[in-house]
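Key result, reporting period 2: structure in, sequence out.
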């Protein structure tokens, strides 16, 4: 590949996003000899994603090969490869016969066999220790049209009644824990589908299935998931924890005496670090293995070129003596190993952003990870028993070698209240000495997310068009400790805004940056900040706001999480008590100040930042005579830019490029 200031190679085109093949969800076999993973690509003509299961011997990079390749007229998605306890079978989910069902295949090859008829939104697939059953979560089957005389009517008495990507949720058809007999295909629902259960994990003896759920009478306003268990043959679910703090991705130790999970003992504190915790299998006090490092466990580093179904769940290794997990640290997400009760140590030799991983639990571990960097969306890496990391796949190298990519250069600067900050600047492709170029500030979502060392197609596309890019991690971002993340609570639009403007000031010191041609863009919280910034300053010549927020007051009632997360984000401020404060942090109050031309892009089925947010913003700005364009995508939700229909993703990118070309100038 070429760096941005070299003349060879070609510039990116929006449709190049269709050519990437994305690795995800690696799963090491119980003996550590093989790894299965998912490879996802795009069928641009069918306007759909396709995925299949691949296999490799963990001591031989040349052994990478497809395991499944179903033929058919329709695009097929195959996901969640899961090894049986003896390694003789591989279960996975596939829609190869029109609906997503469970299948089993011999890992040495051959035809896959369907297991049962249960279909739907399958998740959390896991084998029983005996290999005779599979557990998963799923909603109960939808009623037939004959049993639902009024399918156009929706009724609920719950506050949490819709969710982005799922739509309107039937009160008694949420995700429950199921168990399926592998031999007969019979599926049994074990838990009540009123509660939305997740993360099933078998006990070591196979008698119980542990899972997580939020089952408080006030569950619509209390977002702490507890650990439960249910007898595998049926019965009432038993609560193990009692609201001390969240429990996610539980995994039972090989000896059956402990459970590891991602969570904390901080109650309903949405900003507190998620920690690697262990606890006695029967309950009691939880022990944190990561409280000493002031970082949140898991990956929060963003990318728009990722299709990874990995869960990031911890992995017991060496027979339960150690635990493997990931943690975000600044722009990185690294793997660490810990002996419960001691400080963690890093796994060396891997690229800087780990999106998913696994390992065998017995004996010396073989670790499989999907690892990304600024110039690669992610490949399969294996850390062998000798501790040496080896890259196993290179699916996108041929494409990347054609392209001119801009390497992000780290910069330090001082934000509001003298807080140290870091950001990254990408030079425009074909940059020439003595010439000035526009610069676009890109603001990440969240705000509890992270910009970092991951491949971001949109950044590279804008740089390829001849504009510089600046991105950073203002307060509110993860990866810098709790104080940094908590710095935005109740303060949206204040010091976070000053942090972002300090980043612009830092970039403006570069001799190639044209300070009269600055742009700003972002999505979700980044869309909020884009809207906010153009109400506070006239320094930007153009803006593009995606899945954005313009009116925090109305978002409380229209967003799928607004009634809860908005109050949390505003420091507890509620509609009836703090109306003026909430509106004072809403961009729409200051719409008359806007002079910056702004592109507004939104998805019709975005329930996280609902369409009414974009409609209010557009109507206000048009009434006030601001140069504005409004683009709406039917059938898309909050994830449009990351996993929306392939043709819509490219259309969105083309419109973004055209908008900045019109208002910042075409430098190519």
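The corresponding designed sequence is given below.
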């Amino acid at each position: 590949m070429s760096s941005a200031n070299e003349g060879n190679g070609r510039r990116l085109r929006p449709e190049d996003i269709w050519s990437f093949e994305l690795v995800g969800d690696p799963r090491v076999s119980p003996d550590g000899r093989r790894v299965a993973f998912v490879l996802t690509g795009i069928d641009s003509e069918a306007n759909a994603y396709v995925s299949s299961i691949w296999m490799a011997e963990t001591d031989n990079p040349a052994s990478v090969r497809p395991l499944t390749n179903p033929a058919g007229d329709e695009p097929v998605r195959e996901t969640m490869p899961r090894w049986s306890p003896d390694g003789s079978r591989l279960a996975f989910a596939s829609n190869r016969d029109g609906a997503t069902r469970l299948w089993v295949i011999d890992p040495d090859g051959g035809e896959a066999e369907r297991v049962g008829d249960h279909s739907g939104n399958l998740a959390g697939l896991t084998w029983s220790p005996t290999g005779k059953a599979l557990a998963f979560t799923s909603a109960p089957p939808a009623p037939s049209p004959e049993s639902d005389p009024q399918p156009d009517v929706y009724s609920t008495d719950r506050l949490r009644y819709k969710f982005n990507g799922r739509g309107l949720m039937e009160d008694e058809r949420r995700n429950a824990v199921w168990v399926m007999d592998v031999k007969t295909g019979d599926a049994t629902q074990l838990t009540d589908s009123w509660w939305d259960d997740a993360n099933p994990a078998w006990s070591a003896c196979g008698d119980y299935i542990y899972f997580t759920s939020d089952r408080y009478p006030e569950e619509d306003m209390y977002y702490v998931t507890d650990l439960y268990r249910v007898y595998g043959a049926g019965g009432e679910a038993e609560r193990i924890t009692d609201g001390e703090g969240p429990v996610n991705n539980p995994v039972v130790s090989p000896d059956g005496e402990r459970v590891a999970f991602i969570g904390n003992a901080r109650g309903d504190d949405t900003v507190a670090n998620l920690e690697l915790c262990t606890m006695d299998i029967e309950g009691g006090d939880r022990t944190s293995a990561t409280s000493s490092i002031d970082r949140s466990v898991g990956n929060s580093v963003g990318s728009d070129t990722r299709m990874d179904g990995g869960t990031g769940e911890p992995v017991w290794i060496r027979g339960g003596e150690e635990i493997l997990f990931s943690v975000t640290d600044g722009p990185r997400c690294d793997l660490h190993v810990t002996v419960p009760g001691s400080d963690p140590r890093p796994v060396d030799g891997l690229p800087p952003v780990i999106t998913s991983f696994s390992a065998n639990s017995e004996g010396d571990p073989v670790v499989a990870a999907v690892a990304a960097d600024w110039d690669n969306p992610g490949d399969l890496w294996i850390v062998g028993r000798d501790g040496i990391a080896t890259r196993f796949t290179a699916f996108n190298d041929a494409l990347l070698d054609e392209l001119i990519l801009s390497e992000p250069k780290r910069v330090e600067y001082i934000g509001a209240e003298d807080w140290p900050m870091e950001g990254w600047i990408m030079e425009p492709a074909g940059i020439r000495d003595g010439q000035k170029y526009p610069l676009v500030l890109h603001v990440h979502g969240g705000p509890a997310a992270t910009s970092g060392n991951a491949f971001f197609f949109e950044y590279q596309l804008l740089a390829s068009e001849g504009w510089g890019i600046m991105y950073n991690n203002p307060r509110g971002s993860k990866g810098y400790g709790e104080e940094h993340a908590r710095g935005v609570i109740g303060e949206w639009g204040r010091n976070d805004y000053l942090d972002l403007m300090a980043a612009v000031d830092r970039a403006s010191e570069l001799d190639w940056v044209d300070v009269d041609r600055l742009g700003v863009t972002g999505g979700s919280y980044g869309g909020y900040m884009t809207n906010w910034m153009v109400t506070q300053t006239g320094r930007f010549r153009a803006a593009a706001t995606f899945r954005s927020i313009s009116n925090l007051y109305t978002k409380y009632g229209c967003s799928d999480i607004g009634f809860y997360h908005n109050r949390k984000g505003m420091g507890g401020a509620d509609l009836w008590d703090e109306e003026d404060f909430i509106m004072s942090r809403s961009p729409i109050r200051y719409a008359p100040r806007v002079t910056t031309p702004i592109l507004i892009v939104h998805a019709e089925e975005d329930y996280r930042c609902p369409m009414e947010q974009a409609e209010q913003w557009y109507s206000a700005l048009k009434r006030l005579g601001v140069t504005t364009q409004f683009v709406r995508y039917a059938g898309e939700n909050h994830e449009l830019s990351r996993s929306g229909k392939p043709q819509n993703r490219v259309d969105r990118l083309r419109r973004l490029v055209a908008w900045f070309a019109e208002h910042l100038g075409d430098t190519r």
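The mean pLDDT is 95. The chain has two domains: 21-395, 400-664. This case is discussed further under Risks and Mitigation.
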